[in-house]
C-alpha cells in the first residue's frame, strides 16, 4: 500500500493533486531525523538541541526522490512518455532510477561538462538514462533543457516543476513527526536551485493555515561562497518578496553583471554550484513568511562540517555539510541561540561525491593538491580521529 510504504505518500492528504490509485512510488522518504550531540557541540547549541534530517537514505541517495515521486505521479496523470532535467547530479540520478523502476518514461539528462561527480554519473548511466554533456555549467544546462523540453513537449522534472516541491514538503512533515510536532526554532538547509527552501516554506505556511502548528520555524539558507547569488541578493542588496511585489530588476541586473564578468559558480560542493537559482522568487516568499535569512559557507567550512557529521555517524556529501557549517556560523554571530532547537538538512549521501572527501582525509600530498589545493582548503589534519 503506497500510503504506508512511502514516506511521502503517507501524507497524501497534504498533497492534494493525485487520486490514491494513481500514485507512483519506489519507497522514498523512509528517512531519519537524528539527534546529534557531537554536532550540537560543534555548532554551539546545547546537547539535545541539534537534529540532522538525513535524506541520504532515499532510494537514489538524495532528497530529490521526495519530489520525483510526486512529479512521476503527475506525469502519469498527464500521460507523459519522456522526462528531462538539467542536473548537478542528484536530480538526474533520481530521474534515472524512477524511469528504470517504473518504466513510465524515458529519461533524458543534461549535465554541464565535467561538472558531475562519478557517483552520480554512474547512477544515471547504470539506470539507462540518455545522458548528454553540454558545453557549459549547470546554469547553461538548465537554460538549454527548458528550451528543448518546451519545444518537444518533454516533461521537465527540475524543481521549477511545482509537483516536485509538493513532494519535498514532506521532508518537513517528517521532521515535525520526529519532534512530536513541537516546531523547532530553526531549519537550516543548503541552497542551490532553492527548491527545498521553497517547499519547506510552503509546507509550514500550509500547516499553520490548517491549524496543525501554531508557529513556523525560521528558515536559514546556506549558499556555498562560490555560488552565492541568493546571499548577495538577499543579504547584500536587500531583495525581498514584499508580498509578491519583489524587485525583479535587481535580479536581472545581478545576472547581467555575472554575464558581463563571465562569472561562473565555483565550489567543490558541486551539487550546489549554481548561480541562477530558478526558484528564487518562491524562496523569497518562504523567507518572508518564515523569518528567514541567508548565509554563505566557504569550501573549507563545508568540508570541516561534513567530516564532523560523518565522525558522528552520518555520511553526507559536501553540499549537505553547508547546513551544519551555516548553523555554526549563525551561532557565532549570535543569531541562533544555544538553547534553540536546530534541524540541519543532510540532503544526500556520502558516496555520491567522494573525491573531495578522500582528498581531504588523505596523507597523499599530490592527491590533495590536485583536488583541493587550488581552492585554498586545508587538510583535515585527521581532526576527527
Ligand atoms: N543538496 C544536494 C545534495 C543537492 O543535490 C542539491 C541540488 C541541493 C542541496 C540544493 O537543493 O536546489 O533545492 O536548493 N541539486 C540539484 C541537482 C540542483 O541537479 O541535483 P535546492
From TrEMBL:
- Stated EC number for the protein is 4.2.3.1
Which of the residues bear the PTM N6-(pyridoxal phosphate)lysine?
A: 64
Which cofactors are required for activity? pyridoxal 5'-phosphate
**One of the protein's GO biological processes:** isoleucine biosynthetic process
**GO-annotated molecular function:** L-serine ammonia-lyase activity; threonine deaminase activity; threonine synthase activity
**Top-level class of the enzyme under EC nomenclature:** lyase
Q: Where is the Tryptophan synthase beta chain-like PALP domain?
A: 25-347
> Can the keyword Lyase be found in this entry's annotation?
yes
Q: Does the keyword Nucleotidyltransferase apply?
A: no
Keywords of this protein's UniProt record, alphabetized? Lyase, Pyridoxal phosphate
Q: Which domain of life is it from?
A: Bacteria
What's the family? Belongs to the threonine synthase family.
This protein's name: Threonine synthase
* Shown residues within the full chain: 61 to 445 of 464
Amino acid at each position: 500500500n503506497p500510503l504506508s510504504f512511502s514516506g511521502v505518500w503517507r501524507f497524501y492528504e497534504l498533497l492534494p493533486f493525485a487520486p490514491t490509485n494513481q500514485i507512483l512510488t519506489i519507497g522514498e522518504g523512509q528517512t531519519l531525523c537524528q539527534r546529534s550531540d557531537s554536532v550540537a557541540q560543534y555548532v554551539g547549541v546545547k546537547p539535545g538541541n541539534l537534529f540532522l534530517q538525513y535524506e541520504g537514505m532515499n532510494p537514489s541517495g538524495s532528497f530529490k526522490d521526495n519530489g520525483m515521486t510526486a512529479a512521476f505521479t503527475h506525469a502519469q496523470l498527464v500521460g507523459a512518455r519522456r522526462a528531462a532535467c538539467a542536473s548537478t547530479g542528484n536530480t538526474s540520478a533520481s530521474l534515472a532510477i524512477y524511469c528504470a523502476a517504473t518504466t513510465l518514461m524515458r529519461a533524458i539528462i543534461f549535465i554541464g561538462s565535467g561538472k558531475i561527480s562519478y557517483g552520480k554519473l554512474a547512477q544515471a548511466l547504470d539506470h539507462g538514462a540518455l545522458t548528454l554533456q553540454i558545453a557549459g555549467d549547470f546554469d547553461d544546462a538548465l537554460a538549454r533543457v527548458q528550451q528543448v523540453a518546451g519545444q518537444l513537449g518533454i516533461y521537465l522534472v527540475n524543481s521549477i516543476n511545482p509537483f516536485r516541491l509538493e513532494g519535498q514538503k514532506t521532508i518537513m512533515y517528517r521532521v515535525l513527526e520526529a519532534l512530536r510536532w513541537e516546531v523547532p526554532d530553526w531549519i537550516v538547509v543548503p541552497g542551490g536551485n532553492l527548491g527545498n527552501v521553497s517547499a519547506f516554506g510552503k509546507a509550514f505556511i500550509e500547516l499553520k493555515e490548517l491549524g496543525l502548528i501554531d508557529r513556523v520555524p525560521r528558515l536559514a539558507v546556506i549558499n556555498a561562497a562560490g555560488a552565492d547569488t541568493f546571499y548577495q541578493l538577499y543579504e547584500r542588496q536587500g531583495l525581498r518578496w514584499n508580498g509578491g511585489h519583489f524587485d525583479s530588476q535587481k535580479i536581472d541586473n545581478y545576472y547581467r553583471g555575472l554575464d558581463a564578468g563571465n562569472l561562473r559558480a565555483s565550489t567543490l560542493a558541486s551539487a550546489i554550484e549554481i548561480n541562477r537559482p530558478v526558484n528564487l522568487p518562491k524562496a523569497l516568499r518562504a523567507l518572508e513568511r518564515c523569518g528567514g535569512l541567508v548565509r554563505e559557507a566557504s569550501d573549507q567550512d563545508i568540508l570541516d562540517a561534513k567530516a564532523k557529521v560523518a565522525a558522528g555517524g552520518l555520511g553526507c556529501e559536501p553540499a549537505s555539510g553547508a547546513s551544519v557549517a551555516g548553523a555554526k556560523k549563525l551561532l557565532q554571530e549570535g543569531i541562533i541561540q544555544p538553547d534553540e532547537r536546530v534541524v540541519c538538512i543532510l540532503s544526500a549521501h556520502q558516496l555520491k561525491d567522494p573525491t573531495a572527501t578522500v582528498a581531504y582525509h588523505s596523507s597523499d600530498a599530490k592527491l590533495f593538491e590536485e583536488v583541493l589545493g587550488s581552492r585554498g582548503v586545508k587538510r583535515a589534519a585527521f581532526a576527527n580521529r
